[in-house]
Amino acid sequence: MHVGPLYGDVYMADQNDSWRIMSHKYDGKIHRVWTCAYPIKKNSTYHDEFVPDLMLRIPAYAKVVEANGKEWSSNYDVIACFYERMYYQVMVLRKGHHNEYYCNSCAVAEISQKSKTVSFIDLDLDLIIDKNHIMRVVDQNEFEENSMRYQYPEELKMRVKNDLSELMRQVRQQKGVFSHRFTFPEHQINNQ
Predict the structure, then answer these.
(1) Domain boundaries along the sequence of the chain
(2) How far apart are CA 18 and CA 138, in angstroms?
(3) pLDDT by residue (tens digit) across 84-143?
(4) Structure pTM?
(5) How many angstroms separate the CA atoms of 9 and 118, rounded?
(6) How far lies 127's CA from each of 22, 39, 65, in Å?
(7) Which CATH class is domain 6-184?
(8) What are 54's strand-pairing partners?
């Protein structure tokens, strides 16, 4: 697997090929798998330094499998947004005429073109943003517990907290995917 320049290479892949998104815990064990996701090209006329480097559409009713084998799905599309240099990823929940957001603190995602997989290490601390842009940090206890269980290095804990603060600033200032001017390529989303 490789990080960095290959983010852009995902867009060169066949846009009809299904990818998987895999979330792992710090010890490498699988946490959650989104079984079906399609790369989508950025075409928004809105640009700032917080625009995602990689986006994949998870279609409504695509199966998600938890580590314990439990399966579930959403009745709406989700756009998974990944960033090459930030310790978070954003799930844009496309709920009808509005978006909501579930943001995961995580290590920078790794991409495997060969297996068509995007993998990341879930670092527990999450941010939920509702349709009114009200923010709520969740899983703080899980972050503290896993920090001790997995012995997260101090610099990792600091990076997660700093990037979470940056993410909250983006929401408040309506930057990146939180901007009303940021648009998703609807023709790609609707035709897959």
Answers:
(1) 6-184
(2) 30
(3) 899 999 999 999 889 999 999 999 999 888 899 999 999 999 999 999 989 999 999 999
(4) 0.88
(5) 12
(6) 19, 24, 21
(7) mainly beta
(8) 82
